[in-house]
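Why does this matter for the project? Reviewers at the last site visit asked to see concrete outputs rather than summary tables. In response, this paragraph embeds two records directly. Each consists of the residue sequence and, immediately after it, the corresponding structure tokens. Nothing has been edited or filtered.
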Amino acid sequence: MQLNELLQICLLAVAHRYPHHTIDFNEALCELGGESAKGWTALALIEQFHRTQPQLLQVPARLIVNDQKSEIYLVEYSEGTPAFFIHCRGRIPAARKRMMELQPV
């Protein structure tokens, strides 16, 4: 899945599709006033940014979730370095290769 939208829309897409995942943010690109960079849900990040940096939610972003990576990039800041890393808590379906191994013959 790839989505090119505003950061808020990308985070809402993560919240809708992967509600049990956690997100870490790259402290070099984002700061939350001393808050930990690890273990956020998408909705909690949206709420925190509404309170502390509402303008950041309106920045163009690129959400990429595939077999190799699950990340959000802030296009205006860095297309090569992810701003957010999405971590599975056992809810993302197994990778295609693994699913094929599990299917009965």
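We now turn to the second protein, recorded in exactly the same manner.
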Amino acid sequence: MRGKIRKILGIRENFKQEFRRQLRTLILFTLGFTIAFSWRQTTFDISQAIVNSVLKIKSSTASTILTSTFITLVSVLLIYLTAHWLKDTNRHQY
């Protein structure tokens, strides 16, 4: 009987730990998304200034498209570099 109770309590404790871990991840994700969203327009404006100074574009539509393309390319490059730097070196490659 005691074994069953301890087993149930152990499962309950594991659930609490996992729930806290998932809740912490959710809070961090939410706050990170809020920060990124608040800096969105600033990042776009700075990138647009860079693109406009390099390419001397007068059309606002073309400027917006090229700025979005520039941000996408820089982001893909950062994703690639981050994935390379944070690669698990202990993982077996088949």
